[in-house]
Amino acid sequence: MIADRTLEPRDVPLGGLRGLRVHRTLPSRPLPTIGAWCFVDHFGPTEAPMEVLPHPHTGLQTVTWPIEGSIRHRDSLGSDVVLRPRELNLMTSGAGVSHSEFSDPGPMHGIQLWVALPEHRRHGAADFEHHPALPRVSGDGWEGVVLVGRFAGQESRAAVHTPLVGVELRLEPGRHEFDLDPAFEYGVLAVDGDVTVAGEPVLHRAMRYLAPGRDALVLEVDRPTIVMLLGGEPFEEEIVMWWNFIGRSHDEIVRAREEWEAQEARYGHVEGHDGQTIPAPPMPQVRLTPRIRRA
């Protein structure tokens, strides 16, 4: 079992060397997933635009959560949605989908997450959901929004395919205690300031991983602070992640890449970009292997 630990953010350019800079905490070398959460990018606050041309996905769900600023989402299913702060976009790739994301001018801050799809849902049709209103929860000195799953007696209608939870929490200064599901493992992302998680200091943008077995969590902050709580039952299926694809083998990833480059029908077409897309990078010179947990 992986022990509790802090995952430090990595600075990554989104969409090329001159693209939007993001702070990535998941996947990390010792920990590829928290529940089925397999990717966490924290972007902003920034004035830099998000300009991501059509690109493909397989084997995953994208979860887009703006805190400030708006993002226009267009996809190969025909969706064309402007996503605003504290609204949720949830796109399920199935066997293949493509989409673009462009921010409106002005300040921008938010989180982009991926969820690995289990075997029974990673094939077949893609889907897209826009949730402008999500369940709200609150307590003494805190309030939150339930993106997915169930928390504090409220449950989101967003479709997930493994036991999972995601909650944005806004904390006033002080000590706050929350009930947890002991079957879940959790990650607490320090979104806009430092936070003490179960007695351990976690710096801004870092994430604290908590192993299964806890039925309660104490968070402490000394100023108004946003955190993201992510959790789920440990994801037992081995996954191979590369670029925008999640599969189960090297050969499956190679095929997904080749079919994107050939503009095969599995990925569809995103209107409004005059045929422009993001080309797939070259495959690495080694065979891709499943990501494993390292104690």
What's this entry about, in short?
The protein is mainly β and 295 residues long.
Determine the structural class based on helices, strands and strand pairing: mainly beta
Ends apart, CA distance between termini: 6 Å
Q: Tell me the number of helical segments per DSSP (H or I, 4 or more residues long).
A: 1
Shape: globular
What is the average of the pLDDT values?
96
Name the beta content range.
over 45%
CATH architecture: Sandwich
- Care to count the β-strands? 26
State the helical fraction: under 10%
Helix and strand run:
EEEEEEEEEEEEEEEEEEEEEEEEEEH
Task: Give me the CATH superfamily.
Answer: Jelly Rolls
Give the tally of structural domains.
Answer: 1
Radius of gyration, in Å, reads 18 Å
Major sheet: size, sense and barrel closure?
7 strands, antiparallel
Domain Pirin N-terminal: 21-115
Domain Pirin C-terminal: 167-263
InterPro entries: Pirin, Pirin_C_dom, Pirin_N_dom, RmlC-like_jellyroll, RmlC_Cupin_sf
Protein name: Pirin family protein
